[in-house]
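Bench notes, afternoon.
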Amino acid sequence: MPSDDPLDALATEALDGTGTDLAALATADLVRLVNDADADVAGLVRTQLPVIGAAVDAIAERMARGGRLVHVGAGTSGRLGVLDASEIPPTFGTPPGLVVGLIAGGPAALVSAVEGAEDDAGAGARDVEALALTEADTVVGIAASGRTPYVLGALAAARAHGCLTIAVSCNTSTPLSAAADLGIEVPVGPEVVRGSTRLRSGTATKMVLNTLSTLAMVRLGKTYGNLMVDLRATNEKLRRRAVRIVVTASGAGEDEAAAALAAADGHAKTAVAMLVLGVGAPAARAALEAAGGQLGDVVGHR
C-alpha cells in the first residue's frame, strides 16, 4: 500500500535499494560504502553548474551595490550556512555582517537540536526581517528536503522585500525552489543511513555554498590571480601567509613584503599596491578605492 507520508516521496529519505545490514559489514566495507556514495556527489553538483553560475553573478552584482549574502537553514543545512558565513571574513577580509548565517533555533542550535525550530515558518520570517533587508540583499534558503517551513518562511519574507532569493536543496521539484528566484537542486538520492542528510546531502550543500560565496568574492575583487589578497593578518599563521601572498603578487623579497604589510596594517592587498606602485599606504588605499578594490586594475593583471 503506498505511503501517505510526504517524506517517503523524497529521494533523500528513500531506502538505497541494497538492503544492506550496515552492522553486519566489516569496517573496511563500511568505509568503502560511504566513500562510494560520496564519490558521486561532485558529478551531481556539476549538473547544477549553469544555475550556480547564474547565482554567483547575481549575488556579486548585488553585493557590489552594498548588498549582503544571507544563508538560512535548519539543522545540518543551517550549520553549514553559518559555517560558510563565518569563514568569509578571515579569508577575504570582509566585515562580519556582509555574509550572514541564520539557523532555526538560534545559536544554541549550532551544538544542540532545538525541538520544533525547523517547523516554525514565522520564526524564519522574523529572523530575516530582523536584518532590515534591502533589495540589494541575497537570501539563500538551504534545506536538503526542499520543504523546511522555517526556510520557506524566510524566503517568503525576503521576496517581499525585493531580495534575490536562491534555494539550495537535494531533491527535485521542491517547494523551496518554487519559492525562489533561482533553484539549485542536487539530486543526491538515498543516504547510506536512511534520511541522514548530514552525509551526501551535507557534502553537496557544502560544495554549493563554497562555490557561491568564494566566487562571489572573486567577482568582487577579493582575489588577485588565485591569491586571497584581501586577507588581513591577525595571527602568526596569517602573518606568514600574508608575507607569502605579497611576495608572490609583487615580486618583492620577504623583508620588503613584511615591512609593507606592517605599514599597511597587515592588509595584503594594500601592501602589494604599495610595492608595485612605489607609493605609501595612503596613496595605495586611494588607488584601490578608485578601482573598486580590484587590485588587477591598479597594478595590472598577472
